[in-house]
C-alpha cells in the first residue's frame, strides 16, 4: 500500500477556512486483481493528528481490515 502523499499543511478548500482540527491529509493509491480484472482505487483520508506516513500505514491497514470484515 503506497502512501502517495502526506500533506504538511492544514488542508484548505476554496473559499472555506482551514478544517478546524485537520492535521494530516493522506492520499493512498491501491491496485488489486480480482480474477481477470484489475481494480484501481485512490483513497483520501483526513486525520486530526499530525502523523508520518510510516505511522499511518498500519493504522490505515487496520481500518481496512475492520471494513472488510463487515462484508
State the low-pLDDT regions, or none.
Answer: none
Shape: elongated
Output the radius of gyration: 14 Å
Report the major sheet: 3 strands, antiparallel
How are helices and strands ordered from N to C?
Answer: EEEH
Distance, first to last CA: 21 Å
Q: How many structural units, i.e. domains?
A: 1
Share of helix, binned: 10-25%
Protein model, in words:
With 71 residues, the protein is of the alpha+beta class. The chain has one domain (3-69). The protein is 24% helix and 37% strand. It contains one helix and three strands; from the N terminus they run βββα. It is elongated and about 45 Å long.
List the SSEs and their pairings.
Blueprint (H helix, E strand, L loop, with lengths): L2 E4 L17 E11 L2 E11 L5 H17 L2
Antiparallel strand pairs: 1-2, 2-3
Give a short summary of the structure:
This protein is α+β, with helices and mostly antiparallel strands and 71 residues long.
Question: Characteristics of this structure?
Answer:
single chain; alpha+beta; 3 strands
